[in-house]
Design brief:
The protein is an alpha/beta fold and 631 residues long. The protein has 24 helices and 22 strands. β1 and β2 form a beta hairpin. 32% of the residues are buried. The structure holds ligand C2E and magnesium ion (MG) (2 copies).
């Protein structure tokens, strides 16, 4: 229950009137007794005092009835007083600013938070109108709408910009309420508000973060896609063309893995800055994630223009990045999509540029490629296969096949190489060449290789148990996984889980994977070697090994690529190459293993040249574990 100012005044007036009445009455009484009140006896004076006190107590006790009598329906019990005190404390200590006006809109009270937020003291605003704080940001209609809502609903809430005493304008979240007295008449307005400038600021920051990449400060994929959409609308209206370039750094992963993410991040930042310099202003440059950047060239009429821009980017990226004592070289592949010739929507354009990028990557990297129709079909096939591959893993459609490896001198089988197959429900047995590159691009290769590794180890343990002795089971490791630290852990886990003796496991890594980043490879191979497994370089002769580096690698075996074996024993070039590889391996204390042996004379030639191991259709094709012969 609250007491309005008007009521308080009425109460005070009542006390004053009653007191005056009483004094007059007491005077009359005293005068009735004697002309000189000072002449009263002590007994009479005590009686008068008692009478006065008694009457005062009576008035106090019956004050509620008296107040009721004069129309103030309040009972200020102790409880009410307590509540009032609490309300006053809340009013003054709340963080929200509070402003009370009378029904005419003149300020009658403000709290401490009001003074803190606005910078005005109470005496500077009492008696004034709240329009003193107007920011000028809202028009007349805005305020009219507030009053209309107040009149209709008795309450209004919303964001409103006001001005502080300092002149600064700031946003408030304000709730205004119309207060009515017991008779239902409008008596006051109370406005409660909070300063939301801090929130607004955070909102702006959040909006910025949502649309920008924190590392480079460039627009992110979300903003880029939005810009592409807008650009297409404008281009369509103006009958102009647009070019969309997707850029991907080549072998960036090896920098991250080899030098750490901090260096990787610094490099990405510098790449962003350099790209900014190349493309110049008026062209949207974005970091789409990881090592992928996007460039949107509006007003790009011809293919040639986009191609030239791509070439400029590729060339500038070839220059070394020098920072913190590092001198790093990186190349970039670019895929180009054009509007309106290639695609009509932003989504399609992005997809096409991505296909073109894939083409650029597949054709040797550090180059650019354009999107064409035929690429779309290729991309679609890839997308379909990628989707199906996931299902293949889930539904156990992969198969581990084993191809025998023979000792050329004794013609005995000494080991097997595990080769993956996909038992596709419609397409039948799919060879790895059709899905491994897709798995590598989509990242599924990690799961596939882990699965093959586990199968191979399990199978080898089973053969051991059955007394079927072999010196090794070989497993291929994708170049995509080879650079990653997780590989070591994965191999260790599988060995532990299956209980296979590490000496019986051989890991094959292609020559190109090793030479892509020899330093990382060296570290990785050492770690794997520590596990006790044997290491082989697959498809040897197809990469560009540096002999010096090869010598430092902890590798026990070189596998001569089948391309050189095919020409044996007649092709002079192949003969020369095979001889060199065998000599090289032997000089470095490595075993030599020839693959792709299809005829007996190839095997004889290789044995004569002192190649130790042989694999190929001549000895046996890759087959399921159950189909291997055991004499
Ligand atoms: P690779 O590791 O060099 O495997 C040898 C390939 O040569 C196998 O092809 C094998 O079937 C084939 N081959 C064996 N003997 C002969 C022969 O006498 N004549 C001919 N023409 N070919 C022969 P496949 O199984 O199609 O595998 C192809 C490649 O796919 C493999 O080359 C390997 O790089 C990759 N691959 C296979 N399985 C896996 C796997 O589980 N993980 C990874 N990452 N890659 C795998
Ligand atoms: Mg292999
Ligand atoms: Mg091979």
């Amino acid at each position: 229950m609250s007491v309005s100012v008007r009521d308080a005044l009425r109460m005070a007036a009542l006390y004053v009137v009653l007191s005056i009445l009483w004094l007059v009455l007491a005077q009359v009484l005293l005068q009735g007794m004697t002309d000189d009140p000072l002449a009263l006896t002590v007994g009479q004076q005590i009686n008068v005092v008692i009478w006065v006190l008694f009457s005062a107590v009576l008035i106090f006790v019956s004050r509620a009835r008296l107040l009721n009598f004069i129309g103030i329906g309040v009972r200020l019990r102790g409880e009410d007083r307590e509540r009032l005190r609490m309300a006053a404390a809340v009013f003054d200590s709340t963080l929200e600013g509070v402003l009370v006006t009378d029904r005419q809109g003149l300020i009658v009270h403000v709290n401490r938070a009001f003074m803190r937020i606005t910078g005005y003291q109470q005496d500077e605003v009492v008696g004034q109108r709240p329009n003193k704080f107007k920011s000028g940001r809202h028009g007349v209609a805005f305020y009219q709408q507030i009053f209309a809502t107040l009149a209709e609903k008795g309450e209004w809430s919303g964001e409103i910009w006001n001005r502080r005493k300092s002149g600064e304008i700031y946003p408030q979240w304000q709730t205004i309420r119309a207060i009515h007295d017991d008779a239902g008449e409008l008596s006051h307005y109370v406005a409660v508000f909070s300063d939301i400038s801090a929130i607004k600021h955070t909102e702006q920051e959040l909006a910025y973060l949502a649309h920008h990449d924190p590392l480079t400060g460039l627009p992110n994929r979300l903003l880029f896609t939005d810009r592409v959409e807008q650009a297409l609308v404008t281009a369509q209206a103006n009958k102009r063309g647009c070019g969309l370039l997707l850029l991907d750094l080549d072998h960036f992963q090896s920098i991250n893995d080899g030098l750490g993410h901090t260096i990787g991040d610094q490099l990405l930042k510098l790449v962003g800055e350099r790209l900014g310099e190349v493309v110049g202003s008026g062209v949207t440059l974005a970091r789409l994630g990881g090592d992928e950047f996007g460039v949107l060239a509006e007003n790009c009429q011809q293919v040639g223009q986009a191609g030239k821009l791509a070439q400029r980017i590729i060339e500038r990226m070839r220059e070394p990045f020098v920072f913190d004592g590092h001198r790093l070289f990186i190349s970039v592949s670019v895929g180009i999509g054009l509007f309106p010739s290639d695609a009509l929507s932003a989504e399609q354009l992005l997809r096409n540029a991505d296909s073109a990028l894939f083409k650029a990557k597949s054709s040797g990297r550090a180059c650019y490629a354009l999107y064409t129709e035929e690429l779309t079909a290729h991309a679609q096939h890839r997308v379909e296969t990628a989707g199906e591959l996931r299902r293949a893993l889930e539904q156990d459609e992969l198969r581990a096949y084993f191809q025998p490896v023979h000792d050329l001198a004794t013609a005995k089988r000494v080991g097997v190489e595990t080769l993956v197959r996909w038992q596709h429900p419609q397409r039948g047995l799919v060879p790895p060449s059709e899905f491994i590159p897709i798995a590598e691009r989509t990242g599924l290769i990690a799961e596939i290789d882990a699965w093959v590794l586990r199968q191979a180890c399990r199978q080898m343990v089973q053969w051991q148990r059955e007394g079927r002795q072999m010196a090794f089971v070989a497993v291929n490791i994708s170049s995509r996984l080879f650079g990653q630290h997780a590989l070591y852990r994965q191999v260790a886990e599988v060995l532990h889980e299956t209980g296979l003796d590490p000496a019986l496991l051989e890991l094959e890594v292609t020559e190109s994977a090793v030479m892509e980043d020899p330093e990382v490879a060296l570290e990785q191979l050492h770690r794997l070697r520590e596990l006790g497994v044997t290491l082989a370089i697959d498809d040897f002769g197809t990469g560009y090994s540096s002999l010096l580096r090869l010598k430092r690698l902890p590798v026990q075996k070189l596998k001569i690529d089948q391309g050189f074996v095919a020409g044996l024993p007649h092709d002079d070039d192949d003969i020369a190459i095979v001889r060199v590889i065998i000599a090289l391996a032997r000089s470095m204390g490595m075993q030599v293993h020839a693959e792709g042996i299809e005829q007996q004379e190839q095997a004889s030639f290789l044995l004569q040249e002192q190649c130790q191991l042989g694999q190929g259709y001549w000895f046996g094709r890759p087959v399921p574990a159950g189909d291997l012969d055991w004499e």
